[in-house]
Design brief:
With 203 residues, the protein is an all-alpha fold. Helices cover 74% and strands 0% of the residues. The structure holds 2-acetamido-2-deoxy-beta-D-glucopyranose (NAG).
């Protein structure tokens, strides 16, 4: 366990609300009944590649995010790390049953076990780095931002490597089960990267 600092308190608060982020499959049915999302989150999510899941997973953070692009990026990373961990746990649990079946499929599942674990590490590392950034425009800020951009990009590559491996060598129910969870993580990671990139003063 990490020591609790005042800086990491905000990310702890963010984790508290994670239960309110629905899966992509629930989006269409949940959308019509949900309350109007915060304008800032709505507008920021408009700049991401998957705006619907972005709003759905981040609107409950409106009270902690206010109008802070940095808090929004942090929330996006925290949600993504949590969903990646959940997907990683799911894939790891599948391994024993699938391994003896078909070697190519077992290889695809094993690829996913490894890449999803790696993505969780990189996303968690990014959340910690976000809490160390300091003031915008300082050289320290851009150094930490560079690290976050590098690690989130690598996490996205990891997740997409799992999907490629499944597409080529997975089959049937195992492929469908893993894919459903990992596609969501891929979309959330892409969105988190877009929200992180918006913090870059060099853009
Ligand atoms: C699919 O399996 C083959 C044989 O094990 C392997 O050479 C190939 O790299 C795999 N494809 C992907 C995308 O991982």
């Amino acid at each position: 366990m990490e020591a609790i600092t005042s800086n990491s308190l905000s990310s702890l608060l963010l984790f508290f609300f994670l239960v309110l982020c629905f899966s992509a499959g629930a989006l269409t049915s949940a959308d019509s009944t949900s309350s109007a999302p915060d304008d800032f989150i709505h507008a920021s999510c408009g700049a991401t590649r998957y705006p619907a899941i972005c709003v759905e997973c981040l609107k409950s953070y409106a009270p902690t995010v206010h109008r802070s692009p940095r808090q929004l990026a942090l929330a996006a990373l925290a949600v993504t790390a949590d969903r990646a961990r959940s997907a990683s746990t799911f894939v790891s649990g599948l391994t024993p049953g699938t391994k003896p079946a078909r070697s190519r499929e077992a290889g695809a599942v094993q690829d996913c076990v490894e890449t999803m674990q790696d993505s969780v590490d990189r996303l968690r590392q990014s959340v910690r780095e976000m809490n160390r950034m300091g003031r915008a425009q300082s050289s320290r800020f851009t150094w930490h931002l560079d690290n976050v951009q590098t690690w989130v990009s690598a996490a996205l590559t990891d997740v997409n490597t799992c999907l490629d491996s499944l597409a080529q060598n997975g089959s049937g129910r195992v492929r469908t089960a893993i894919r459903n969870k990992v596609v969501e993580v891929s979309q959330l990671t892409s969105n988190a990267l877009a929200l992180v990139n918006r913090l870059d003063p060099r853009n």
